Amino acid sequence: MDQVGRIVRELRKREGVSQESLARRAGTTQAVVSRIERGQASPTLRMLDRLLLVLGYEADLTARELEREHDPVHLAEELRLRPEERLERAFAWGRFNERLHAAASRATR
Fold this sequence. Notes:
mainly alpha, 0% strand
């Protein structure tokens, strides 16, 4: 079960609402609510907002800047590469950087 599904299930049970009642009031089906709660489906933000509203809650979606220099997705992709591939990529970036500086020098003469 994913976190969104767990939250929906916990709030629904806390409020004493059945999946069928929640679904009907939110404009969807019991099967969809069940799949969301089990983590087999991800609701759209609009659907999540409707489900929470029916239960007497509202979503509080915030974003904050990461406190690190590197993009975690890019870093994870890099770490999946073999060491030889990472080394070759680093050398390729070095060669690109040298060509870029050479081109900049020629352009400013």
